[in-house]
Diaminobutyrate--2-oxoglutarate transaminase (Streptomyces formicae), 433 residues
Amino acid sequence: AHEGILRRQSLRESAARTYARSLPIVPVRARGLTIEGADGRRYLDCLSGAGTLALGHNHPVVLEAIRKVLDSGAPLHVLDLATPVKDAFTTELFATLPRPLADDARIQFCGPAGTDAVEAALKLVRTATGRTGLLAFTGAYHGMTVGALAASGGATDVRVTRLPYPQDYRCPFGIGGDRGAELSARWTASLLDDPKGGVPAPAGMIVEPVQGEGGVIPAPDAWMRRMRSLTEARSIPLIADEVQTGVGRTGTFWAVEHSGIVPDVMVLSKAIGGSLPLAVVVYRSELDAWQPGAHAGTFRGNQLAMAAGAATLAFVRENRLAERAATLGARMLGRLQGLAASHRCIGDVRGRGLMIGVELVDPDTDEPSADVPPPAPALAAAVQQECLRRGLIVELGGRHSGVVRLLPPLTLTDEQAAAVLDRFADALAAAAR
Ligand code: PMP
């Protein structure tokens, strides 16, 4: 069955799909961190549905919440109508939001993917400000629909001004650290204030507090605060894309809490649906300039996703899984940094909480101008395959696909974390040989 399914899928399915397509696994069962394939092999899943599975696969509280709706006779789909399930989800979500946004927030259910919510956010700020330009960052990823793609750097006709996202490793200014972040902020301010700067009047600025697909790059807290004050002073709505960073992943419930900023708009998806598709935009009520029907859509009322999501949010909150992600993530980073000390092919190890990236490089490059060695995508792909041979699923990311990404569930135990890192170290040694 395993081989047949893989063969038929590779024949029938479009090459346009991405996530994990190169992994020859046919999952038939899953629980927590573990996936079992049709061939009986078991894998530790550190891809977690691209960060969706905050509680891992088939967590009992998630299954219970879904069963409860199914057994209750409640409708599974009623478009935008109010239901007890939706009410419970929204109440739970609002209880987690940073104040003062929580006290003054409106929610728009979008649907059902992260990119839909990004699209809604972009439309919302265009409507509210009457402007059409957009400020977005180098290395960003916001999705695959036209507006979200424009924000990510894809060529479309949305007028985007691309600003330098600060990073230590491969800093666009070749500086990194506080100084690099400071230059990024100054560049942004001077560009916005230059009447001849060629910046189309921005309807908003969209930022990931930690870039995920871009290669796991956490923005410095001080820089996030600068972006907040820069945009606030110029009445530019700030949109935080927390599709991947939300629900405890980075060590706080929402990643904006690290810097303490309060965005005007938050885009949320992935983990908020507790494994099922759900996406929302939350925003200051002042921005709610939409007329009824201005942003409609059929599949925005997924009752099962709301129930699974409410159960997930409550479980993360009650069990302090964000704090757990912070401590366990720091420990895992420490061990990976130890590995980097003995492997020259590891250029950088970085992350926040349980969002971790290991950048692989070619240390023996003879490229004279490189201040850091060039990325090694082929090595990263080899490490991914060696991980797979050892029963570990990891994802690749970064602008050159040279970053191995770990996004384990927040329920990861110490023993599981050790097993993941043991397998990773083995795979690295095999691939780098
Ligand atoms: N924003 C961010 C930060 C993401 O990481 C992603 C998906 N990886 C998206 C938006 C798009 O979400 P989706 O794939 O559900 O459309």
Q: What stands out?
A: The chain has two domains: 2-58+320-432, 74-318. The mean pLDDT is 94. The longest strand covers residues 346-352.
